[in-house]
Amino acid sequence: MSQLFPRLVKAGIVLLDPSTGKVLRVISLQYNPDSVTRTLQIQGISEGGDRSEALRLKGPAIETFKLEAELDAADQLEFPDQNPNTVQYGLQPQIAALEALLNPTSVELINQNTLAQAGTLEIAPSESPLTLFVWSAQRVVPVRVTDFSVTEDAFDPSLNPIRAKLSLGLRTLTVDDLPFTHRGTSIFLNYLQAKERLAGLAPSPALSTLGIGGIP
Question: Could you give the number of structural domains in the chain?
């Protein structure tokens, strides 16, 4: 009898149309990173502020993610008939999809130049797709990509990368970054509410666990 293995959930990035919520692209990481570093910076009252405000929070914590991922074309190259793009371009399509998160499109740049040449005084950049970082069903987070680096360390005869290591920095977008009616705000609130539900499941032992009988 064949042995059944649990289906591995992939981490990745989803791009949404900010107006309609339509999924524009899904970028799945080939291998889940071994670790994800999360940093939360509290938004409290700054030093020297009113002492009556010391326990107040000005807004959600500033949360950043840092993760390392690997790409390898070896499996696809074993079946060239099924993966013609990998044969022709190696890992360049996957890398380019991630790089696209950091750049306006060439069409947008051309349109901005056309408007500038026509004498338009103020040119507002087009709104980019809403970027979501997905790390399990409990962590679907609206983010901005803050930094991206790639080390390509193996190549095919045409100098296409066939093995690469990625480093990705992300910052959570909150109600401080987006209008309250924005699609990204509702996703952030759902993310925050999921954290609150999980926090409610954490054990809360007696004070005696800490070696005290009460609070002075």
Answer: 1
| Dihedral over Cα of 191, 15, 172, 126: its sign | negative
- Cβ-contact 11, 30 below 8 angstroms: no
Tell me if 51 is assigned to some domain: no
The SS3 of residue 57 is strand
Summarised one tens digit per residue, pLDDT across range 79-97 is 989 999 999 999 999 999 9
Quick: pLDDT tens for 135-190: 999 999 999 999 999 999 999 999 999 999 999 999 999 999 999 999 999 999 99
pLDDT for 48: 61
Residue 204 belongs to a domain: no
- 31 in a structural domain: yes
2 in any annotated domain: no
Q: Answer whether 6's CB lies under 8 Å from 29's CB.
A: no
Strands (E), the chain: 12-16, 23-28, 36-41, 62-72, 130-134, 140-155, 161-172
* Residue 123: strand, helix, or coil: coil
pTM of the model: 0.87
Count the alpha carbons within 13 Å of 36 in the hemisphere toward its beta carbon.
Answer: 18
